[in-house]
Prior knowledge:
Layout: E1 20-24, E2 30-34, E3 40-47, E4 51-60, E5 74-76, E6 83-85, H1 103-111
Antiparallel strand pairs: 1-2, 2-3, 3-4, 5-6
Amino acid sequence: MVPFPTTRGGKWAISTDGGTEPLWSHRGTELFYRDASGDLVAVAVNANRTFSVGRSRVLFPAAGYESLRFTPQYAVAPNDRRFLMIRPLETKAPDNIIVVENWFEELKAKSRK
């Protein structure tokens, strides 16, 4: 982590084993990221007058969800207690999209009966 706008002001290690897809909590008191095992991890941070890093904790295994190295593939709920993640389909069948044109007219015709 590097301070902004003075990027030469210091650096702080958040993880000793690296990590990907970092996202700040909405409160600004935690940093979420994926560790090397794919787990979603939370690290407490204090960014008041001085910056300090607390202990990290694994929130849950997330290896079965979509992941890209530099772009987070999950979203954090406003209360920082839930996460929205993308899980690949476990079927080999192709996805189907059903398009219904003029559905409102069809609905009106069915409601007259």
